[in-house]
Amino acid sequence: MKALRDPHRVLAGGLAAIRAQFQVPEGFPPAVLAAAEAAAGRVPDRHVDRTSLPFVTLDPVSSTDLDQAFAIERAGADLILRYAIADAAWFVDDGDRLDAEAWKRGTTTYLPDGKAGLYPPALAERAASLLPDGPRPAIVLAVRVDPDGAARLDGAERALVCSRAKLGYATVRDEDVPEGFAEVARRIEAAEDRRGAARVDPPQQEVERDGEGRFQLGFRPRRQAEERNAALSLAANLAVAEALRAAGTGLFRVMARPDARAELRLRTTASAFGLDWPEAMTLEQFERTLGGTAPREAAFMLAVRRAGQGASYAPFRPGERPWHAAVAATYAHATAPLRRLADRYVLRAVLAVTAGQPVPAAVSDAFERLPEVMARAEARDGQIERAVIDLAETVLLAGQEGQPFAAVVTDTGANGARIQLCDLPVVARVAAGAVQPGERMSVRLVEVDPARRALRFEPVG
Fold this sequence. Notes:
Largest sheet: 5 strands, mixed
Helix content: 25-40%
Number of strands: 19
Strand content: 15-25%
GO molecular function: RNA binding; RNA nuclease activity
Number of helices: 12
Radius of gyration: 23 Å
Organism: Novosphingobium flavum
Protein name: RNB domain-containing ribonuclease
Strand order of the largest sheet: 2-9-8-5-4
Shape: globular
Oligomer: single chain
Structural class: alpha+beta
InterPro entries: NA-bd_OB-fold, RNase_II/R, RNase_II_C_S1, RNR_Ribonuclease
GO biological process, one term: mRNA catabolic process
């Protein structure tokens, strides 16, 4: 799960209840499993041989559903990122059992103790995954990155690739990755800064024990290898988006920036954490000053993620330019087809556009239907993530009933005041009248209910 890890499995009982509440699938129907085993045996016969290219993958050490591999070469002042993406569409046909099940799920759903995959393991963790144990079918994007960090799609093809190594974020060394890896990332990040893009990926939260045996929520900052790898994916997705938009087709990721009320709440949250956010500085500028290594900075980055108006998908419309505020550009999802349904169709469109062929009717039709399907899946995943964090907060505060906590009011409404604890990444509501956003107050923890994943505070004095 992106938001939280539970290495000691202290949340096991509560996670089981969350799985039941949100009907998270425990596996796949037998017919779907059988279809996956049959599809896994398909021999790629529409793929050019690119096994000589030195691709590597870079993911969490334990990951086995590997969507991307990369190789890098120089072309004068430019760098060419060869980005191999798992060819899920090779194994899944329109309307077959695998396709129908994927449309039901929309995404891979992650929890701290496991996941419910978009596709069965026979594909997602074996035949389609870009593991380093033999050739795999892939869609290879050629992304040209110029010295200013502009990314352009030079081409796309179906190809057989062979990963040289499965690298892990926690163990990778500079000498393990292709030459130019750090330079591509530096260029992309510099272009982000010039565009005014925001960086809202908070560090991962972890449930851990302190020196006295009590549980607490800590933050694990993103490693440099993760940041650089994310830059490669960003470059590929930006290049794909511009290529599709120019061709008058596509499915785009769109997001508005936080509105004025949400930004006001964030300013009071920053105040609660003792962070200096100058009045003249925009949210995007302030975010770029945060490293995310200090717990309070990490907690604020998590608050920014919660405050956003949410990203969604939108098909191409003539005369409209789809926009993603956090990226500050036109943006598409294409690089995780083993985990997101939409990416499989975006990649099919890319193959058609770069070959000068019409986009298949099934793909154009899917672009119209996918926004609703993906919104439903992401809403479910968001509810699950919120439930998991609520559960972790009850574990964190169990046994501290009666204790006072410093808090800042971030918002008010008919249901009372929303508060942010000053010393913990916990947001709650409290019955309090005549308080204003930004006002500091002291609250007492009255009740901790892990079964309902609920905390109850009351004002002190």
